[in-house]
Design a protein that fits this description.
Keywords: Leucine-rich repeat, Repeat. The protein is mainly β and about 190 residues long. The chain has helices at about 1-10, 25, and strands spanning about 15, 35-40, 55-60, 75-80, 100-105, 125-130, 145-150, 170-175. Strands 1-2-3-4-5-6-7-8 form an 8-stranded parallel sheet, with no helix packed on it.
Amino acid sequence: MEGILKNILKKIRPLDFGAWVGSAKLLSQEQFTIVKEYDLNSKVSIGDLQKLKRLIVRCGDLVVLPVSLGKLKELEELNVTSDTLRELPVSIGDLQKLKRLTVSCGDLAIFPVSLVNLKELEELNVTSDTLREFPVSIVHLNKLKRLIISCEVLAMLPVPLESLKQLEELDVTSHVLWELPVFQFSSGR
C-alpha cells in the first residue's frame, strides 16, 4: 500500500492543504520535492519544495514570509495575499525564474531593492494601502510587460519608466499620486 501511495504522490502537481496543520510534516517527505504548485494557506516551511513553479500564499494574519522562500529556484509565479504583511523578504531577489509577482497586502510599506534581481519578471501586480514609493530599481526589470499598481498613498512612480522597453500595460491607481511621468515610447507601442 505504501508503494502505491508513493507513486500517486509522485504525480501530484497542484496541491492545496488549506489550513491543515499536518501538512508541514507531510510536505517534508522526499516524494513531495516534485510538487509544481502549492497553495499555502497557513504558515508552513516551503524551502524544501525545490521544483515548485507556483506558490499562492493567503494568510490574513501573516506578518513575515520565510527567508527560505529564496530557495525556490524554479518558482515562476508568486501570489501573496495578507492584511498584515509589511515587507517582502530580501531573499525574493533570489527567485531567478520568477515571471509573475502579485502582492496584495494592505500593510505592505516596503518593497525590497533586491527586486532588481528578478530579470525574468514579466508581470508585477501590487496592491497596498500603505506603500508610498517603489524602489527605483524597478526600471531595470527589462522583461516587464505588465505593471499594475493600486496603492492608496503612492506619491510617485519611479522614473524613467520608459527604460522598460517591453512594457505593454501600465495601470496605476492612487489617491495621492503627485505627478505622472511623461513617457516617450518608441512608435508602434
